């Protein structure tokens, strides 16, 4: 079967911009999920633009050795397109990417997909009641715009003095060079987050030496991955109720971890004990144990799951520096503690720009206000999805729509339900727009801030990518149970939207649109 990879740039016909009901930006989990649901609901007027030459988002970009989900596979997949054939309890990256490709192919999304098409700018046209969208591959007009551009897609490259002078291969984890062989090379890796703990065990034995620069120690708990037997997979295939039960159990288990994020006892101590026992069981050397002990509250940063990270750090060729990499001079790289090492390859496992998403600098709403300016103090949205002054714009994976304790797919699906409700409303009220009031957005943000204030993400004494560096607000995570996000935000309600009808606009043309100049 043909895979939706490396397709040619999609040619657009010359002339007026094609008008679609919905334009989706991004073909990762969120954009694909949105497209699948639209297609299933019989809403065929939509296009998905994707800047890369293939689909899969994070699971296309991250090809480093060991890349895998740390949410159980049965839960880390669409509830409406489950997969009984996952080979392991935690799926590896290539298998997740293949799943998403199959979703595109079998879900009928190929005709809607425009690869190699990057959003350059989107501007709300109040007179026409649509978004005018300029891309690297033509222009579009859309009644509604769904931003599904991901929150972990822009690599964060640290400003380390001398970085340019490093002569050997130097790359970010999400830009892993195809076919690179680290056998016999001296490797340095800076950062010890979710990506690094997956990579380090894979390369520790291959490399001639590995230096790990750790600015803050992560909490790492057992992963307990295992292969599903052929018999189990057959059972999941023939008994969807068992697959559903496995999914449900994984969801409940993850939810049970939330009280610890509020600092609730004994939950917090119990969870922390899982980490302590894991470390003590895997690392004998007391000095190394101390070096691997975080100095902040359990859960403040993302809790990592690995069975081979700590053992990798005990290997003879591996050195753990308990301070950041601060300077580079040719092959010589130095940590803040003054120690330096000669290395051949440098890996930046330094995370992503999450709080300031680049697409916000390309979206202009009413009164020519840039979304990035609306968000100059950190991202906000009503229902984590709609922003005042940006009519018919829906953002998936944006403000407070991620989770620190459960599956991102649950959040994406909740937001999709909300958006479908909004689209139904728009279809029932031709000539109107959906612009949430500023008061509703502010009230929602206040309630999120109040809930966030009690969580370890703000009280735990760490800095993480969940918190906006400008306002110190928790702007990435939903500060509650995954279930409460669905209860609160899963159903569209028109009440908080501006009731004023769009002036002088009749029932709209549904075929083409001539952009304003
Ligand atoms: P990350 O969690 O943000 O970790 C970045 C690491 O780089 C941290 O250890 C950080 O140290 C360090 N760092 C950043 N800037 C630095 C600087 N200037 N100097 C020294 N150290 C610096 O990034 P990630 O590991 O790529 O993971 C990002 C997210 O992607 C995860 O939280 C997760 O949601 C997702 N992810 C998921 C999976 C999975 O499902 N298995 C796998 C990979 C990634 P500090 O902690 O001191 O800031």
From TrEMBL:
Residues 493-517 are annotated as: Disordered. Pfam families: Pyr_redox_3 (PF13738). One of its GO terms (molecular function) is monooxygenase activity. Keywords: Monooxygenase, Oxidoreductase. InterPro entries: FAD-bind_Monooxygenase_sf (IPR051209), FAD/NAD-bd_sf (IPR036188). Transmembrane segments: none annotated. This is 4-hydroxyacetophenone monooxygenase.
